[in-house]
Amino acid sequence: MPFETRNPKLTPITVNPRRLLSLLLLLSLTGCATLHGERDPRDPWESFNRGMHDFNTDLDNKILKPVAEGYVKVVPQTARTGVSNFFNNLDDVVVLANDLLQFKFRQAAADFSRLIWNTTVGLAGLIDVATPMGLTKHDEDFGQTLGHWGVGSGPYLVLPFLGPSSLRDGTGRAVDYTQFNVTTTAQSDTTRYTLLGLNVVDTRAGLLRTTHLLEQGALDPYLFIRESYLQMRQNLVYDGNPPAPELNFDDFEDLPPDEPPAQ
To answer: What does the pLDDT read at residue 5?
Structure first.
């Protein structure tokens, strides 16, 4: 697996994953016109991935999207905000653990304070009291932790039910879920599966506008999602400051020479 080097002098910035994904999807409208005949070295399993993408899309159109749309119509906005805040608070446990694993101790202190304030004063996270206090939410996971320490993303991989990922990020998801996800500690299977299902519906409802852009604007939805995902993950791993791409000057050798100016 290839390794990437990081610049330790880069200054971390706050990244909202949903807003970043929406922005990258918009940018990708003009950047995903790759020809089907060209094989992307980042996606050696494209045939499998496209099949899994079609499976997930069919599942989403038949089940997840209608349920999310019904959820938005039936549940008041205030209640939906409380649900989102609750799961964001649970996610802050994952964020805090990966802050520490990446030695981001100052950010970890802020995220710990955020977790304490929202869990206590914010009534188990239903009310986000930390953000108005200047304790903004960060996004960290074990996939980013691996990237932080130089592990390359590996091949692009579309997971069943979970969607776009990579070999590194798929491993990171498994670690986060089994080691840091608070819902896995619930004693009752009913409670655990209820929380899992509600989290899925809440997440899908939050992406309804983004997927509308995808349906309306993407020439090839598979490429659209792949490029957006890979760009988003690179930005997250490098805290919004990814390294500039290296120019291969061999690509310019076949360009015609400049013509002399007319006399």
So the answer is: 40
Specify burial of residue 200 (Cβ count, 10 A radius: 0-12, 13-18, 19+). Answer: middle
Helix, strand, coil percentages for the chain (3-state, nearest 5):
60, 5, 35
- Tell me the CA distances in angstroms from 119 to 91, 104, 126, one per residue in order: 12, 22, 8
Nearest alpha-carbon partner for 110 in 143, 87, 85, 137: 137
pLDDT of residue 11: 41
Q: Where are the domains of the chain?
A: 56-242
Show the CA angle centred on residue 95, arms to residues 14 and 169, nearest 5°.
95
pTM over 0.85: no
Question: Each residue of 161-181: pLDDT tens digit?
Answer: 999 999 999 999 999 999 999
Q: Is 147 exposed, middle or buried (0-12, 13-18, 19+ CB in 10 A)?
A: buried
Cβ contact 229:164 at 8 Å:
yes
Distance CA 261, CA 206 (A): 57
